[in-house]
Amino acid sequence: MFNNDLLNKFQSINTPFYYYDISILKANLDALKISINNNNKVHFALKSNFNSKILDIINSYGFGIDAVSGNEIKKAIEVGFKSEDIVFAGVGKKDSEIQFSIDNNISYLNSESFQEIEVINKISSKSNKITPISIRINPNIKTQTHKHIQTGYRNNKFGIDINDLNEVIDSSNKFKNIEIVGFHFHLGSQINNNSPFLKLCSIVNEVNDLFKAKSINIRYINVGGGLAIDYSDPIDNSISDFKNFINLFNKNIFLNDKQILHFELGRSIVGQCGFLISKVLFIKKSYEKNYAIIDAGMNDLIRPALYNTYHKVINITSKSPEKINYDVVGPVCESSDTFAYDYPLPITNRDDFIVICSAGAYGQSMSSNYNLRNKLKSYYSDAI
Ligand SMILES: Cc1ncc(COP(=O)(O)O)c(C=O)c1O
After folding, report:
1. How far is the CA of 189 from the centre of ligand 1 (A)?
2. What pLDDT is attached to residue 182?
3. Which of 70, 192, 248, 250 is deepest in the core (most CB within 10 A)?
4. 222 and 285 share a domain?
5. CA–CA separation, 323 vs 190, rounded Å?
6. Cβ 113 under 6 angstroms from ligand 1
7. What percent of the chain clears pLDDT 70, i.e. is strictly above it?
């Protein structure tokens, strides 16, 4: 995909920058769209990428937004998403964020503690409203993902302990200014096997029965996101397996009349369309190690430093048939500013272009100005 034509275009752009391949984004959105049925609705996890052009395209497919801050709700509305297509999760919602979501009549708030439900009720009462909420449950399911992106296990801060659910429902049901319209889970991110999702389905069915027994009309069952992408082979495997993921839930969750199954996908939609494009500043050898020092840093893509994650790295300029191992590092003053250790690359020289793949999700959205470095510009395959 990084042919001479594209390389020539890159030559006139100041590195580093983010490059988004819009055809990969659309191929994922098409694949998702044909995998869902009338009882399904997808809310894109805006935290994974809040780039306006990408959000515009996602909006054009009719998907909604999963927001985790007042500013994310604001951004979604500014881009043109309808309020009724926005849901709001997060363990620590400020009063002002709750007020903002109530004022904007969003679909529902995923409430993560009893105290939060109490506060929503209070704020709602002052506004003379009845606010739809969904109860986020921590199902105590372990996932084989990095522990920092696991969210549904007993020692994670998210959701309400499933053992307290009965009591929380009964106490919340007494509040006059909230209505429980759904329940919610999110097990974590980059989950690449079905077994935790299958466990989740049986818990969903039990919880659904519990609400039914209490005559509470649950309209939305939200199973979160978490579908993994292929970081090792992103070029050949750029489209996520939405069919298997969505089917698994549709087959194993028994919906009651008119219930809708909600999904909150982020990484699997935008992960593979984004690339971090950088240039080699210097090559050096130190204590037997070869370093390729590039102009992108951990502040532009923090995942390797934060989660020790693998990203495929490609030198798109070197013609050398010989490969040697490099530590691919950035200019930031931290030793964790390393994109790859002992990574085989063709002989690499100053000014070569280095591409870091699978940077579309939790890349630009997690970037910072650390070391007072500039935030990066974005370029798009259909407008470059
Ligand atoms: C509540 C919630 N829903 C959905 C997602 C999206 O997860 P993913 O990008 O793995 O699909 C996240 C991300 O961690 C999340 O916190």
Report:
1. 6
2. 98
3. 70
4. no
5. 30
6. no
7. 100
